[in-house]
């Protein structure tokens, strides 16, 4: 009989990414599909979206009694994931407990040393590794031959050789049917939400980011045909009304991207689409931006990070400061909502430089802005440079809204106060703009709902109280 595997999300809530909706765990959907294809019984338990506590997870798994439990985590959710596996170990003493995700991929040694209840770490993508691991465990074989994992050999943490990345992403079969679809909604449009992945990897090398390390500087794309097919299937089989692209770099290849847009225009799925991409690509695509909107893109997120070219260069952001402003204008002209992030808290940050960033955000005038702290993960290139200044070692606070280090001129408390002020000033101006707009447009309704969510459901709720009146 095949092993029974439960794939789990950790009970982590920071009031940041989750404020606009509940997000399907795409990585677990892919893993579940790969396990099932090898004849392994698998279920997805999205404890995060269900808002279950560690005690509830423990009770449920004690009842289900799977032989293998896999949990995924980012750096911010890693402490919750490790604590959850500890509780699971108490009720499933002989189960194989597995952890995956970007944090565990790089911090495997530390986790295996400090958390004896974690048996194995899956490093990098897991669709080929996880089924092979389960098979080896069931057969009682050594893990030494399973590429892409870390485990203990005679009590000592060790890692096997990296597994080559999957060549053809179109061969993967996400198990969408294993989700409880009633859970997944985008609050702003009150729509059933799916997340898809059209590519994996990024060829950029921003110093605060680690995606290029996780994907080993490789970039792989799915065919436009399979991506359109998936969107149609999500709509027809599961009633999906809105799709978010999880790609690290959605629009890298213009030819492929335009083909995808053309196929969507032909198929007219009537599904709302949203994604993150780079400002230079929006400028590059200005002659075909109308296709973005006509194909269904209603909302695009751009990482602006800074108006200061020297800061952008120091972060290896590889964009020109003015490109972001142009990209926002071009998207606005097409009626596409723009959302941008601005990074605060680098070493040279002062009250004056934060004010300049705020003024830049007001001048660029995206529909939504986020003022986030520069938070290099412990495995990012930037980490080595800043590690000695880091004051926050609780990884659950690595959520971009808690400063993990002071700047040369400002304490962490001062940085946090300055960040809250940026949000307040920016959204006061947005409220003024949208209150003045007479037309009851889609954009106006979208913005009103977005601000309501920000005021009522986010980490900012306590700070913004009073502004909504
Ligand atoms: S921040 Fe974005 S563009 Fe830069 S390396 Fe990370 S994924 Fe790529």
Seen as an oligomer or otherwise, the chain set is single chain
Tell me the name of the CATH class of the largest domain.
Alpha Beta
Low-confidence stretches: none
How many domains, as an integer?
Answer: 2
Topology-level CATH name of the largest domain? pyruvate-formate lyase- activating enzyme
| Alpha-beta classification | alpha/beta
Small molecules bound: iron/sulfur cluster
Average pLDDT metric: 93
Walk across the major sheet and give the strand order. Answer: 2-1-3-4-5-6-7
Task: From the alpha carbons, calculate the radius of gyration and give it in angstroms.
Answer: 22 Å
Strand content: 15-25%
Distance between the termini: 61 Å
Q: What is the helical fraction, as a range of percent?
A: 40-55%
So how many helices? 19
* Number of distinct beta strands: 16
Mind telling me the CATH superfamily name of the largest domain? tm_1862 like domain
CATH architecture of the largest domain: Alpha-Beta Horseshoe
GO molecular function, one term: catalytic activity
Organism: Carboxydocella sporoproducens DSM 16521
Domain Radical SAM core: 188-408
Domain B12-binding: 11-144
């Amino acid at each position: 009989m095949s092993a029974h595997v439960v794939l789990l999300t950790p009970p982590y809530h920071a009031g940041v990414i989750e404020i606009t909706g509940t997000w399907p765990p795409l990585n677990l959907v892919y893993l579940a599909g790969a396990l099932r294809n090898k004849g392994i019984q698998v279920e997805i338990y999205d404890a995060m979206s269900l808002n279950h506590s560690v005690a509830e997870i423990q009770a449920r798994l004690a009842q289900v009694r799977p032989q293998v439990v896999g949990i995924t985590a980012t750096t911010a959710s890693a402490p919750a994931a490790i604590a959850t596996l500890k509780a699971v170990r108490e009720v499933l003493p002989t189960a194989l407990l597995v952890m995956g995700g970007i944090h565990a991929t790089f911090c495997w040694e530390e986790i295996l040393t400090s958390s004896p209840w974690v048996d194995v770490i899956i490093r990098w993508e897991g669709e080929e590794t996880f089924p092979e691991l389960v098979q080896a465990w069931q057969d009682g074989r050594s893990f030494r031959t399973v590429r892409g994992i870390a485990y203990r050999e005679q009590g000592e943490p060790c890692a096997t050789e990296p597994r080559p990345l999957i060549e053809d992403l179109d061969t993967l079969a996400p198990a969408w049917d294993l989700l409880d679809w009633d859970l997944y909604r985008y609050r702003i449009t009150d729509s059933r939400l799916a997340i898809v992945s059209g590519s994996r990897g990024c060829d950029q090398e921003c110093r605060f980011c680690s995606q290029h390390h996780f994907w080993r500087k490789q970039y792989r794309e799915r065919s436009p045909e399979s991506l359109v097919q998936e969107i149609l299937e999500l709509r027809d089989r599961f009633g999906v009304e809105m799709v978010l692209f999880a790609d690290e770099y959605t629009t890298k290849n213009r030819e492929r991207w335009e083909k995808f847009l053309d196929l969507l225009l032909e198929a007219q799925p009537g599904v709302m689409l949203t994604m993150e991409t780079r400002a230079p690509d929006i400028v590059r695509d200005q002659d075909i931006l109308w296709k973005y909107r006509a194909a269904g893109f209603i909302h695009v997120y751009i990482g602006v990070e800074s108006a200061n070219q020297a800061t952008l260069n120091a972060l290896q952001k590889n964009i020109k400061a003015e490109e972001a402003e142009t990209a926002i204008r071009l998207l606005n002209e097409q009626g596409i909502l723009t959302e941008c992030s601005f990074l605060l808290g680098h070493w040279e940050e002062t009250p004056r430089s934060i004010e300049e960033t705020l003024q830049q955000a007001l001048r660029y005038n995206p529909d939504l802005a986020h003022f986030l702290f520069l938070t290099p993960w412990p495995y990012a290139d930037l980490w080595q440079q800043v590690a000695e200044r880091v004051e926050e070692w609780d990884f659950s606070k690595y959520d971009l809204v808690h400063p993990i280090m002071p700047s040369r001129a400002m304490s962490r408390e001062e940085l946090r106060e300055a960040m809250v002020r940026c949000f307040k000033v920016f959204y006061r101006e947005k409220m003024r703009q949208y209150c003045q707009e007479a037309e009851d447009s889609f954009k106006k309704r979208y913005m009103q709902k977005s601000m309501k969510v920000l005021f009522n459901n986010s980490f900012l709720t306590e700070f913004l109280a009073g502004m909504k009146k």
